[in-house]
From TrEMBL:
InterPro entries noted in UniProt: 2-IPM_HCS-like (IPR050073), 2-isopropylmalate_synth_dimer (IPR013709), AIPM/Hcit_synth_CS (IPR002034), Aldolase_TIM (IPR013785), LeuA/HCS_post-cat (IPR054691), LeuA_allosteric_dom_sf (IPR036230), LeuA_bact_synth (IPR005671), PYR_CT (IPR000891)
Residue ranges, annotated region (Regulatory domain): 390-513
Subunit structure: Homodimer.
Organism for this UniProt entry: Paenibacillus antarcticus
Name of protein: 2-isopropylmalate synthase
Reaction(s) this enzyme catalyzes, per UniProt: 3-methyl-2-oxobutanoate + acetyl-CoA + H2O = (2S)-2-isopropylmalate + CoA + H(+)
Gene designation: leuA
Length: 513
């Protein structure tokens, strides 16, 4: 199996993401983690960019031991000197020199013709060769460069002592068959190409960075360049974790592997996200929060029966603990029952069905149903109370300059419909006055408390009330994503419990008689 060398440029091209600025301490922390991940080479920065970056590259060079540390340089002596200074103390230093080769860059940016580009790169390589035994040369914007000029530039770089030649798709313009074809062409047409390693470096402007990099591997690339989480200039670079997992998951197809410790991927991704401030989208391949999460009932059922139905790789392989079955409105009974078992509840079919119906109602109102929401629902369901009064609807009008009013519709003993309206000194007071009017129960409210069961704006609110009637007290509990509805439910629940107590007491007295 072919080994593909991993050139990580999180600390250079990744840092070129707008808004990202890593200080020396942060660069060193990421570098240590990249070393644990097992990258072969790491580009620590662009030393000529600023004294701060030069110092940071130097700190990385001194900090890591088992990785080649690289500094980027234009084809200019002053940049090469900055890399020399930055890599003092590195165990295995390497300079990365680049020059653009495409007609657009030649004409508008460099204002050079082909001959000048060739000579500028040649003299930079000659100068660098005096100080570095390892040199990578990049043909910036190779993706839009004429084939014959690519061949000429690669041939020159080989002659001038480059050990790696990189053929970047700098602006993410190519598709996989076009990018792969360049590698095939170079392999077949450039003399002595076997003396060097060929490298792929892709950008994600059209979302094809990973596909293009894999195409390069299939066509002979020895090294791939990329960043953790795919961060980088504009739409970013090839995500290293995607290449590593594609090669690992489809090993027999690509017949290529890396030396990465795959189980360090998740940790590395989290660290890079934290220190760069670049949040990983939930649906990002491999490292997004949803990459191993399943929400829909049919998928969850499949996962519970056999994980390979919906997972082509395991979360453990990238260092995560386990897959997640997220309960939401698309979930089914299998996953719901499994979650209840996890939470310590073994319910019979009837109880599961009742709780499931309540859960679906809640899931229609909430994006995700948390464990706390479920516990609250289940515990409410498990206590059987006789429902003399059942709250059907409430309607509240409130304005800070008007008197709050509430209208309730309550069904008594499953057949009598009670509808009443009342005012109050607040919305909850108006609701409670309307319930009193409808039920004709005379009670005093001894306690009212409210708390949030879960987090966020759509959290379930839980209201507790204590009602007293003729010296007998009962508490009630109401749950809803709306606190007024939770308040009404708690009140009606307490009324039902009071009535239950009343019936129990009178039965006891009858027995005594
Ligand atoms: C594809 C890539 O990702 S390449 C890396 C991109 N990264 C960066 O640019 C980050 C670091 N850059 C910087 O800090 C600054 O651009 C510096 C310090 C390198 C240079 O700053 P300045 O001297 O002010 O030049 P500025 O950035 O405005 O212009 C770039 C100059 O370099 C030239 N240039 C661009 N690429 C190269 C190259 N590979 N080799 C030689 N010269 C180059 C441009 O033609 C331009 O030259 P000019 O001033 O004669 O017109
Ligand atoms: C310096 C080179 C390799 C680069 O970053 C690019 O072409 O995107």
């Amino acid at each position: 199996m072919r080994k593909i060398y991993i050139f990580d440029t999180t600390l250079r091209d990744g840092e070129q993401s707008p808004g990202v600025n890593l200080n020396t301490r942060e660069k060193v922390e990421i570098a240590h983690q990249l070393e644990k991940l097992g990258v072969d080479r790491m580009e620590a920065g662009f030393p000529a960019a600023s004294p701060g970056d030069l110092a940071a590259v130097n700190a990385v060079a001194r900090a890591v031991k088992d990785v080649t540390v690289i500094g980027l340089s234009r084809s200019r002596e002053q940049d090469i000197d900055a890399v020399r200074q930055a890599l003092i103390g590195a165990q295995d230093p390497c300079i990365h020199i680049f020059l653009a080769t495409s007609p657009i860059h030649r004409k508008h940016k460099l204002r050079m013709d082909k001959e000048q580009v060739l000579e500028t790169a040649q003299s930079a390589l000659r100068y660098a060769r005096k100080y570095f035994s390892k040199i990578e040369f990049s043909l910036e914007d190779a993706g839009r460069t004429e084939y014959d000029f690519i061949a000429q530039m690669v041939g020159m770089a080989i002659k001038e002592g480059a050990s790696v030649v990189n053929i970047p798709d700098t602006v993410g313009y190519l598709n996989p068959s076009e990018y792969g074809a360049i590698f095939k062409f170079v392999k077949e047409n450039v003399p002595d190409v076997e003396k060097i390693q060929l490298s792929a470096h892709c950008h994600n402007d059209l979302g094809m960075a990973t596909a293009n990099t894999l195409a390069a591997i299939q066509n002979g690339a020895d090294q791939i360049e990329g960043t953790i989480n795919g961060i980088g200039e504009r739409a970013g670079n090839t995500a290293i974790e995607e290449i590593a997992m594609a090669l690992a998951t489809r090993q027999s197809f690509f017949n290529a592997t890396t030396s990465l410790q795959l189980s360090e991927i998740a940790r590395t991704s989290r660290l890079v996200s934290k220190l760069t401030g670049m949040v990983v989208p939930g649906n990002k391949a491999i490292v997004g929060a949803n990459a191993f999460a399943h929400e829909s009932g049919i998928h969850q059922d499949g996962m519970l029966k056999e994980k390979t139905t919906y997972e082509i790789m395991t979360p453990e392989s990238i260092g995560l603990k386990e897959s997640k079955l997220v309960l939401g409105k698309h979930s089914g009974r299998h996953a719901f029952r499994e979650k209840l078992i996890d939470l310590g509840y073994e319910l019979d079919d009837l109880q599961v069905n009742e709780a499931f119906a309540k859960f679906k109602d809640l899931a229609d109102k909430k994006k995700e149903v948390s464990d706390d929401d479920l516990l609250a629902l289940i515990e409410e369901k498990l206590v059987d109370t006789v429902e003399v009064f059942k709250l059907e609807t409430i309607y509240v009008t409130y304005g800070n300059t008007s008197v709050p009013t509430a209208k309730v519709r309550i069904v008594k003993e499953a057949n009598e419909v009670l509808v009443e309206e009342a005012e109050g000194n607040g919305s909850v007071d108006a609701i409670y006055n309307a319930i009193d009017k409808a039920t004709l129960e005379e009670v005093t409210l001894d306690d009212y408390s409210i708390k949030s069961v879960s987090h966020g704006k759509d959290a379930l609110g839980e209201v507790h009330v204590v009602l007293t009637q003729n010296g007998v007290s009962a508490q009630g509990r109401g749950l809803s994503t709306d606190i007024l509805e939770a308040s009404a439910r708690a009140y009606v629940d307490a009324l039902n419990r009071l009535i239950e107590k009343r019936v129990t007491f009178s039965n006891r007295e009858n027995v005594k008689l």
